[in-house]
Each structure stands twice: as C-alpha cells, then as structure tokens.
C-alpha cells in the first residue's frame, strides 16, 4: 500500500472524526455558546485540513495554489474562533476587550493577505510528498501573529488552571493536553522544519495533529455532561470499524450481491453499535447519579454534623445562661428560709418553700434537658472509678427521705449482710441513674412505700427498687424508658416531670454495659425496677 | 482568731454578691474578682485559704486560670473549688486533672451547702 493511499485514508478518517466530534458537541447542547464555538472551529479545522490535503495532492497548479492559499486563510479564521472559544471556556470573554478587537482585525488581515495576495503563499512546489507551499514576505508577520495568539491562549489557560475549582481544573487539563500536542506538532513540522531547516515536506503531519486538539477539547466539554472515556473509546471504535467496513464495500468489493450483504452487515453493525453506546451511556449515567447522591449525602452529613455541633454548643450555653438566674433564686430563697436574713413568719416561710420547690423543679428540668442533649450528641464522658454501691444508695436514701416523709410513705434500704464488691462506674452518672428510679418510685406511690435492695448475682450487681404505687399496664411498661414518656399515671397524677429521668437512667446504665428494666402486675399493683451492672 | 480568707472569681454580679453575703456571714473574709486576670492578681496579693473559681469567665476561662494558679509555687497548695453552671464532662475532667478539689454545678447547691464544702476543704 503506497504512502499516498495511506495519506488518503488518514485524511478521510481525520476529516470525518473532526466533523463527527464537532457535530456531537454541537448537538449535545445547541444552546451553549461554547459548544457552538467549538463546532465552528472544528469546521474551520476541517476546511484547513481538507484544503491542505487537496492542495498538496491536486495536479492542476492553479487549483493547487488556490487551495494552498485557502489553507492559510482558514488558519487565520480558525484562530479567531479558537481565541473566542478559549475565552468563553474560561469565562473571560469580557475581560480583554482590546484583544477581542485585535484578534478580529489582525486575523482578518491575515485572511485577506493569504487568500487574495501572493504575499503569503507565493507558489506551490511539487515534491515526492505532494505539493508544498512556497511562502512569501508575509510569512514572518503571519507566523508572529499566529504564535502570539497561541501563546496568549495558552497563557490564559495556564493562569486559570491554578485558580479554579478541581472540576474546572480537570476540564482545563484535557484541553491543555490536546492543545500542547497540537502546538508541538505544528511547531516542529510547520515552523521549525520549514522556516529554519527548509524542510517543508512534512507540513501535513503538523496539520493532522489537529485531531488531538479536537478530541481532547471535545472530551473536556462533554465529560461533565454524561460522557466517559469508555463511551468515547467505544464510539471511536464503532466509527472506525464502520469506516473500515464502508471502505471495504466501496474499494474492495466488486460483486454486487456481496456488496449488498456487506451493506446489510454494516447497517446491522451500526444498529448494534448504537445500542451498545446507549447502554454504556445509561450505565455511566446511573453511576454518576449514584456518585452525585453519595456526594450530596456526604455534604448533608457534614452539614448535619455542623448543625449538631451548633446545637450542642447552643444547649450548653443556653443551659448555663438559664442556670444563672435559677442559682440566684435558689440561693436567696434558701437563705431567706434558713434565717440568714432573720426569722420569717411560718406562713411566709411556707410560701417561700413552695417557690423554692418550683425552682428546684425547673433546675431538674434544665439538668435533664442538658443530659439528654449530651447523650444525643455522644458528648458524655464516662469516668470510671471503684464505687461502693451500698454507700451510694445510703446517700440517696438520706437525700430522698424528706420527699418520702412528706408523702407519709416509707423509703427503706435493705442492705446486704455481706459487703458487696465495688463496681467500676462513673459515680456521678450511676448516682443520677439510681436517683431517678427511686425518685420516680416515690413520685408514683401514695400509700405504703419504696424498698431498695442490692445484691450480687454472679458477676453483676442487681439493684431493685420496688414500690407499692400506681403500677403500670403493658403499654406503659414498653415505653417507660423512652424520652418524654410518663405513662398513664403520670399524665393525671404528676404533671411536673418531663418524662426524661428514666430515659437518662437507661442511657447511663447502658454506658456501663448494664441493663435496666421494669415490671408490674398491672395498674394499682405497684412497680419493680431493676438495674444490673457488671462488677468489672 | 484570724479570719480565713476566701477569694471568689465570679463574673455574674448577682451571684458574686449572694455568695459574698453568705460566706462573709459565716465568718470568712471574702474577696471577689470578675475576670481571670483580676482574679490572679487578687489571689497573689491576698494569698487566700481557698478559692471559689467560676469556669466561664470573660476573655480567659477558669480552667486556664486554674492552670496558672497551680504553676505558681506559693499558690499551688491553695485548695480550689471549681464552681460553675457549665456542665461539661471534658471541662470537669480538665479541672480535676489540674487539681481542683471539686467541680460543683452552682444550681445544685444552696449557699449553705457551698459553705459546707468550703469548711470541708479548709
């Protein structure tokens, strides 16, 4: 197969590929200016290539000379569109109004000089490699201007590369790869060799490298929409095979019925090719959709964490701010009641006591809300130490005896006969957990009383709080440890609690790898609460 | 008998007055400061028998001040009760590690109970 024949095939393939890519980008989004500019410069590139090829291969001298001049004129026009395409790609169209005008003026001048005068292409010289242009006096001006615009465009891209987002960087990268390969090829085969080495024969190679410019730029434009290397390569493969089959039908098949069967095969192949590309596109769309969801989820997660952190900070600070006036109220009321400011009449003392109790209720509510908030955000730190559970319960009994006495119910603690082993626990949290359970039992008992027991069961300590109070039905039992749950009795008997105490108990005990549960034989039959915590 | 000296570092005026009132009635000499810097200067000047230290203070927080107190040779042995409505486990742990005797949540204690704590550590 001769060089010329190979050249024919190569030019045909390049021309079709450039037109194909130009159309593909245009039809992917006709409204976008960038896509229109790309299609236009692909078109000029095609004409540039076509006129170079035809100019170099046509025997008729006059036609060859004209086509040589057309080639150089097309380069001038190509650079105008390429300039505006580049600035549009970088969103810098309005940034250089002077250069916008200059490129049109200078390259229009080059177009006229190249096409209508002999200052650029003086003649066409036949060689072994086809006709080559003999360049005239305007060649240095022409070269300087083309070089200037090339450098300007590349400079804008390189400068933008370091200032844009990662996504935009990827797009610019592809474009830069394509432009760089094209510039290098053209620099070597269209400038260095012809101008300095007087070797013009390989000018076509520089021109053919335009395929890299077009292919990489098309990829840069289309990648973000729905295209992937997979699709591009599959499409290129399908097109190449189709072209090969077509060339085979036209050039290498003489018998009609074989031609017809090959045409049928080509049509079937194109149909399969179309569905193959379509299914790859769908697969990639799905994958990209999933990636977008994953990214959105990740961003939402980050946002939620930020909100969560803000909420925690807000609750901490709000609790602190709420507690300040409550502390002052508690402090002064207690000082009034304990006689610091002199003896008070009993009636006033009683009322002050009521206000004090209301204030204590508010304090407990704030404490509980803060605990729940810290539990929800995982901000609780468990500081374990060796704790004697019996001593803890003794202290709680002393603290809660007053409440029990006021209700004329008993509160008894059945201490074990032998001292129990100490447990590894956060003393403050364990105390709060048990306090909530005993306090709850006192609250819901009006007759009889509350009995607290503690014993060792294998490697665990079991604390039982048994009351003779209102009891619970199955439904209440199932929800008693949920937040804001008070059960039926709670709704009409005690409206003061927020229903957080047992929720906090459960969470604190779970932090100790323990378990808490409640049992009851029914309404009016009392309740039994159990807390189990491992000794170690 | 010489009166025991207590320094309270508290930026909330109403609370500072309340504790000063109660503690002075219990027979102590009480001095107060409203921020960490004034507090540190006061402690160095007065050399109290005990320090009641709020945690959420303007500019510099109480934990940092506690650290500074414990680094000063002549101040490090003074018992410090961290005293705040800021209920944060991490801060409590930091205060304890720096040598605070206790970390009390103010709303959980009446002024009399605070005095009982002071007597316990003197």
**Which stretches of chain A of 5+ consecutive residues score pLDDT under 50?**
none
Query: What is the 3D shape of chain B?
Result: globular
Order of strands across the biggest sheet of chain B? Answer: 2-1-3-4-5
- H/E topology pattern of chain B: EHEHEHEHEH
Largest sheet features of chain A? 5 strands, mixed
The strand count of chain B comes to 5
CATH architecture grouping of chain B: 3-Layer(aba) Sandwich
Instruction: Please mark out the parts of chain B with pLDDT under 50 across 5 or more consecutive residues, or reply none.
Output: none
Count interface residues per chain for the largest interface.
Answer: A-B, 25 and 24 residues
In CATH, the homologous superfamily of chain B goes by the name: Response regulator
Strand content bin of chain A: 5-15%
Helical fraction of chain A equals 55-70%
Shape of chain A: elongated
Q: Tell me, what is the CATH class of chain B? A: Alpha Beta
User: What integer is the average pLDDT of chain B?
Assistant: 92
What does this molecule look like?
The complex is a heterodimer of chains A (536) and B (122). With 536 residues, chain A is an alpha+beta fold. Chain A has three domains: 29-217, no CATH class; 299-376, Helix Hairpins (Orthogonal Bundle), CATH 1.10.287; 385-534, Heat Shock Protein 90. Chain A has helices spanning 3-28, 33-57, 61-89, 97-116, 139-161, 166-196, 203-208, 210-222, 229-252, 256-337, 346-376, 389-406, 427-443, 474-479, 487-493, 501-511; strands spanning 121-127, 130-135, 385-387, 410-414, 423-425, 449-457, 460-467, 515-519, 527-534. The radius of gyration of chain A is 44 Å and the shape is elongated. Chain A starts with a helix and ends with a strand. Chain B is of the alpha/beta class and 122 residues long. In chain B, strands 2-1-3-4-5 form a five-stranded parallel beta sheet, sandwiched between helices. Chain B is globular. Chain A binds chain B through residues 316, 319-320, 323-328, 330-332, 334-335, 338, 340, 363, 366-367, 370, 374, 379-381, 383, and chain B through 12, 14-15, 18-19, 21-22, 25, 56, 84-90, 93, 105-108, 110-112.
């Amino acid at each position: 197969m001769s060089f010329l024949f190979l050249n024919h095939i190569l030019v045909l393939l390049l021309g079709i590929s450039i037109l194909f890519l130009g159309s593909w980008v245009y039809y992917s989004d006709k409204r976008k200016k960038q896509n229109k500019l790309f299609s236009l410069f692909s078109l000029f590139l095609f004409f540039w290539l076509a006129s170079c090829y035809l100019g170099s291969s046509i025997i008729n001298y006059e036609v060859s000379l004209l086509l040589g001049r057309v080639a150089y004129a097309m380069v001038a026009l190509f650079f105008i569109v390429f300039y505006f395409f580049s600035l549009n790609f970088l969103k810098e169209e309005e940034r250089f109004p002077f250069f916008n005008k200059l490129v049109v003026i200078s390259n229009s001048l080059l177009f006229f000089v190249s096409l209508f005068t002999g200052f650029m292409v003086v003649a066409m010289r036949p060689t072994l490699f086809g006709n080559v242009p003999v360049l005239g006096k305007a060649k240095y001006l022409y070269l300087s201007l083309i070089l200037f615009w090339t450098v300007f465009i590349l400079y804008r891209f390189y400068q933008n590369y370091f200032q844009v987002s990662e996504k935009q960087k990827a797009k610019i990268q592809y474009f830069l790869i394509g432009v760089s390969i094209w510039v290098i090829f053209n620099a070597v085969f269209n400038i260095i060799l012809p101008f300095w080495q007087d070797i013009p024969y390989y000018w076509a190679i520089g021109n053919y490298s335009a395929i890299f410019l077009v292919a990489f730029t098309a990829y840069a434009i289309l990648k973000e929409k729905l295209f992937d290397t997979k699709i591009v390569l599959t499409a290129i493969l399908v097109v190449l095979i189709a072209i090969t089959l077509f060339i085979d039908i036209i050039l290498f098949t003489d018998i009609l019925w074989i031609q017809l069967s090959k045409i049928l095969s080509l049509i079937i192949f194109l149909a399969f090719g179309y569905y193959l590309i379509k299914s790859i596109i769908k697969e990639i769309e799905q994958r990209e959709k999933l990636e977008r969801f994953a990214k959105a989820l990740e961003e939402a997660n980050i946002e939620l964490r930020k909100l969560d952190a803000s909420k925690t900070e807000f609750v901490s600070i709000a609790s602190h701010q709420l507690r300040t006036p409550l502390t002052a109220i508690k402090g002064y009321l207690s000082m009034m009641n304990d006689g610091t400011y002199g003896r008070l009449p009993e009636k006033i003392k009683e009322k002050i006591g009521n206000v004090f109790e209301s204030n204590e209720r508010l304090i407990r509510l704030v404490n509980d809300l803060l605990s729940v908030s810290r539990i929800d955000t995982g901000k609780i730190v468990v500081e374990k130490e060796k704790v004697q559970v019996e001593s803890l319960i003794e202290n709680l009994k002393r603290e809660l005896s007053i409440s029990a006495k006021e209700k004329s119910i008993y509160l008894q603690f059945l201490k074990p006969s032998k001292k129990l082993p100490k447990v590894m626990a956060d003393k403050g949290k364990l105390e709060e957990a048990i306090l909530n359970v005993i306090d709850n039992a006192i609250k819901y008992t009006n007759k009889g009383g509350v009995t607290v027991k503690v014993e060792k069961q294998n490697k665990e300590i079991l604390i039982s709080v048994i009351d003779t109070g209102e009891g619970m039905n199955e439904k209440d039992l199932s929800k008693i440890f949920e937040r804001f749950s008070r059960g039926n009795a709670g709704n009409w008997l005690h409206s003061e609690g927020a229903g957080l105490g047992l929720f906090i108990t459960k969470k604190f005990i779970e932090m100790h790898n323990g378990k808490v549960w409640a049992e009851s034989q029914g309404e009016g039959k009392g309740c039994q609460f159990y807390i189990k915590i491992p000794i170690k | 008998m010489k009166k025991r000296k207590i320094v309270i570092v508290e930026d909330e005026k109403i609370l500072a007055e309340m504790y000063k009132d109660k503690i002075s009635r219990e027979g102590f000499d009480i001095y107060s400061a409203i921020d960490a810097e004034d507090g540190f200067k006061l402690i160095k000047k007065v050399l109290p028998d005990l320090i009641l230290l709020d945690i959420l203070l303007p500019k510099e927080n109480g934990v940092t001040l506690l650290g500074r107190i414990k680094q000063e040779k002549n101040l490090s042995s003074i018992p410090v009760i961290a005293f705040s409505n800021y209920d944060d486990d991490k801060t409590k742990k930091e205060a304890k590690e720096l040598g605070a005797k206790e970390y009390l949540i103010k709303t959980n204690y009446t002024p009399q109970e605070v005095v009982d704590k002071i007597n316990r550590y003197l």
